[in-house]
Write a structure and sequence with these properties.
Elements: E1 12-16, E2 21-24, E3 27-30, H1 31-34, H2 43-48, E4 54-58, H3 61-64, H4 75-86, E5 90-97, H5 112-126, E6 132-137, H6 139-148, H7 159-183, E7 188-194, E8 198-200, H8 205-214, H9 217-222, H10 233-238, H11 243-251, E9 258-262, E10 269-272, E11 283-285, E12 290-295, H12 296-299, H13 306-318, E13 321-327, H14 333-353, E14 357-362, E15 368-369, E16 382-383, E17 387-388, E18 395-396, H15 398-409, E19 450-453, H16 458-469, E20 474-477, H17 487-497, E21 501-504, H18 511-514, H19 518-539, E22 542-548, H20 571-586, E23 591-595, E24 598-599, H21 607-616, E25 621-624, E26 628-629, E27 632-633, H22 634-646, E28 651-654, E29 661-662, H23 663-674, E30 681-684, H24 712-723, H25 729-734
Length: 744
């Protein structure tokens, strides 16, 4: 939207699909295959519901012409580009996204630029109605990862290879745009680059100056700014740049029409020669000094440059239209909201000052895979984005609602935005970097936030810890403060604390005792949640409450899904089944979590911790060999529930770690991983263990809605790491000596 005089009042809202197609050795890895978009054209209609006006979209060289430019396959783009056009969304077409081209070229191939130009001309001829192009995404970053750090093909590790890759990509951009403009004269170059600032100690100021000049290199080349006075001129000459190269870019006349800035929490860096302050994996150096290269957000009390600083710096340097072309945080859901909110507010502020900020782009609409390891290994580690694709169909997250709000009213609203993201809180700093007298977090407000019921229980305590870590104000209440079986008590507490959400982690949990005290069990597990549901629904308060695998009878023999009929075998299970019926009838928007078999690092009374304690004492462990369950790691469970709560998810969800084991198999796995003798685990029929209540022989859980929690093996590995300090000394001596490759 623009005002009088053409000044932009609001930035546009754009979107982007994470579409990296990078090469490692002889293997190509495609994000749109991993996220399923390759086979889901209907995603585009979902994107249109967000209110975006443009979409950064792949027409990737490696996909269309993997073997030869003479044998292109246009089927994907022939289907998708007209769909976008019909939806009124402008495609901003990309040809290379962290790629090095098909097998018949590479970033250091002298023919790279001419081949890319030929491909660009083919795209323009086939789709002459296109208007905006990003021939190469983040050429500087791609050159660093491919030819300086050696992570991606062609795996160079020296300055000369890096410079060759930068020049090759930038020349490719110039020639590609020339080829496009022969067909589409008004075609716009949307040039994207990762843009962060480097700070340092005084000793390393020279290295920071070099890196702060280098971050602009691709843009400077296209803008014709690399003249004889450029700070990198000598270094470029020393690393293979010829006078012909300098002359080419001085005369290329290819300034970007729009400068797109991709800014992440890891973009700003800090250099420090005091290696003892930082983890070993951050240590590196140059020919003069050894130093740590760390995320500035973790090392600098003053924090990060921020979106406003990034946009303003690019505008002042080039005086061209600017945009945030990737806004994404690999974080908890509320921090994803907070990061986008910061970006949008920065863009609004600059627009009002007269800086031409064209757009803010919500990146990774479908999330991303394996970026936590810089795509060097494909482990399937998924970070959701605006949509979560871990289930059978893309599921809108809280970000989807936020984008719809922005597109309609120019602002986003969510109760979690009252607190800053982790990058603005004192706890973000590494131990060696925190000021002696750190600013404390703001005090817990007397009202608002989240109410958690169950102060003395494992789950309630876990929610309190995780909420504090995630910057979610949390009131952890005891039964004296909120008795869910009393409507008067519930109403009074909700009036006093005025929460936006309530998490019910209270209830009767003693399965065998319930057989002799059904009245108390039903009062706490069914009547209480029903009262809570009615009072929350009356006030428009979100509710999370918990059910159990005990609602099933075990006759299915394969993992139970959310839609399977319930048929509990014991009093406890019947109380939970009744609670499900009451809660969903009285509060249809409630979130009801079925889970089971908790273990975690924060209590001593779960099966895994008890097993390891007994093994450490040299005792044997008897465990049921004929009951199959889905053990659930409490930290994973709590984080997943909070993400679903922030997303405003509703209905029944199964949330447990992936894996189905007997109790005996679980104990044996724990023994092996911790370095104990697995023969100390004695498998026994459940009927010999003295239990009163009947248990379903098979109560493993799976979800038809998502794949929320990591595999059990992964959870056990983290449990041993996190819980080890609280286990007996002899266990500490043995932990880690077992074969962690074997699992249940």
């Amino acid at each position: 939207m623009t005002g009088s005089g053409g000044r932009r009042l609001f930035p546009e809202l754009w979107g982007g699909v994470e579409c990296t197609l990078n090469r490692i050795g002889e293997r190509f890895h495609s994000q749109i295959e991993l996220n399923g978009h390759l086979a889901r054209p209907g995603d585009l209609e979902l994107f249109a519901t967000l209110g975006i006006t443009a979409l950064r979209y792949p027409v990737l060289w490696e996909m269309v012409a993997p073997d030869s430019l003479d044998r292109p396959d246009w089927s994907f783009s022939d289907e998708r580009l007209p769909l976008l056009r019909g939806l009124g969304i402008e495609p901003i077409v990309g040809f290379l996204h962290h790629g090095s081209g098909p097998r018949y070229t590479s970033l250091t191939d002298p023919a790279f630029a001419s081949l890319l130009a030929r491909y660009a001309g083919m795209v323009a001829a086939r789709y002459p109605w296109l208007t905006s192009f990003t021939p190469v995404n983040e050429p500087l970053t791609t050159a660093r990862f491919s030819c300086l750090y050696g992570h991606w093909y062609p795996h160079g590790r020296d300055d000369r290879s890096f410079v060759a890759a930068v020049l090759s990509q930038c020349r490719g951009i110039v020639e590609a745009m020339r080829a496009i403009r022969r067909v589409i004269p008004a075609a716009r170059l949307v040039m994207t680059e990762d843009m962060g600032r480097t700070s340092s100690t005084r000793e390393l100021a020279y290295q920071a100056d070099y890196e702060n000049s280098r971050r602009w290199l691709s843009l400077d080349l296209l803008a014709g700014r690399v003249d004889r006075d450029h700070p990198l001129r000598l270094w470029l000459s020393q690393n293979g740049t010829t006078e012909d190269d300098f002359d080419y870019f001085q005369r290329c006349d290819m300034p970007p029409d729009l400068i797109g800035l991709n800014y992440y929490l890891t973009s700003d860096r800090h250099l420090d020669e005091r290696l003892e302050r930082y983890p070993a994996q951050t240590h590196g150096g140059n020919h003069r000094h050894r130093y740590a290269d760390v995320e500035a957000v973790r090392a600098c009390p003053e924090g990060i440059l921020g979106h406003e600083g990034v946009l303003r710096a690019a505008w002042l340097r080039y005086r061209r239209e600017v945009a945030l072309t990737e806004v994404h945080a690999g974080a908890t859901r509320e921090d994803q909201l907070r990061w986008f909110h910061e970006a949008w507010q920065a863009a609004l502020k600059l627009c009002r000052e007269g800086v031409p900020v064209r757009a803010v782009t919500s990146w990774a609409l479908l999330g991303s895979f394996d970026w936590s390891g810089l795509l060097t290994s494909m482990d399937g580690r998924y970070e959701p984005g605006v949509f979560d694709v871990s289930g059978p169909t893309p599921r809108p997250t809280a970000l989807a609602t936020a984008l719809q709000q922005v597109s309609l009213v120019g602002q986003l609203f969510h109760p979690t935005l009252t607190r800053p993201g982790w990058w603005r809180r004192p706890g973000r700093l590494l131990a060696g970097c925190a000021p002696r007298h750190a600013t404390p977090d703001p005090p817990l407000p007397e009202s608002g936030g989240v109410v958690v019921i169950g102060k003395t229980g494992t789950l309630g305590q876990a929610f309190s810890l995780v909420c504090a870590n995630r910057g979610l104000p949390c009131h952890l209440l005891s039964r004296a403060e909120l008795d869910i079986t009393s409507r008067v008590s519930v109403a009074a507490a909700l009036e006093r604390f005025a929460p936006w959400a309530v998490i019910n982690a209270a209830g009767f949990v003693r399965i065998d005792e319930a057989e002799g005290d059904a009245v108390t069990c039903f009062r706490q597990n069914a009547l209480g949640p029903g009262i809570l549901a009615a009072e929350c629904a009356r006030r428009g308060i979100a509710l999370v409450t918990f059910s159990s695998d005990m609602v099933f009878d075990g006759s299915k023999k394969t993992p139970y899904h959310e839609t399977d009929p319930v048929a509990p075998l014991n009093v406890y299970g019947r109380s939970k089944a009744e609670a499900e019926r009451r809660v969903l009838r009285l509060h249809p928007g409630a979130l009801l979590i079925r889970t089971s078999s908790f273990f975690g690092p924060w209590d001593r009374y779960n099966f895994v911790t008890e097993t390891l304690r007994r093994l450490a004492q040299g005792a044997t462990v008897r465990a049921a060999s004929d009951l199959v369950v889905s053990p659930t790691y409490v930290p994973d469970l709590v984080h997943a529930c909070l993400d679903l709560l922030v997303d405003a998810a509703r209905g029944i969800w199964h949330v447990s770690n992936q894996g189905a084991v007997t109790w005996a198999e679980l104990a044996t796995c724990c023994a092996t991983m911790a370095g104990f003798d697995p023969a100390a685990v004695l498998p026994r029929p459940a009927s010999t263990l003295g239990w009163i209540a009947p248990r379903p022989p098979f109560s493993a859980l799976a979800s038809e809605r998502w794949a929320a929690l990591p595999p059990l093996q992964d959870a056990l590995t983290r449990y041993l790491r996190d819980a080890a300090p609280d286990l007996p000394a002899q266990q500490l001596e043995r932990a880690g000596s077992g074969d962690t490759k074997k699992g249940p």
